[in-house]
Amino acid sequence: MSDGENKMKRIDGLKIDGRLVITAAFLFVLGAMTACQTKTESKIIPANQPSVPLANKAEKKADVTEETNKQTKMDIDKSNDNSLASPTDAYKTAFALRKGKDANGLKKVLSKKMLDFLVEMGKSESKSLDDQLKELVEQPQAAAAESRGERIVGDMAALEYLDQDGKWKLMGFVKEDGDWKMTMPDSKISAIWDAPR
Question: What's the 3-state SS for the chain?
Answer without folding.
Answer: CCCCCCCEEEECCEEEEHHHHHHHHHHHHHHHCCCCCCCCCCCCCCCCCCCCCHHHHHHHHHHHHHHHHHHHHHHHHHCCCCCCCCHHHHHHHHHHHHHCCCHHHHCCCECHHHHHHHHHHHHCCCCCHHHHHHHHHCCCCCCCCCEEEEEEECCEEEEEEECCCCCEEEEEEEEECCEEEEECCCHHHHHHHHCCC
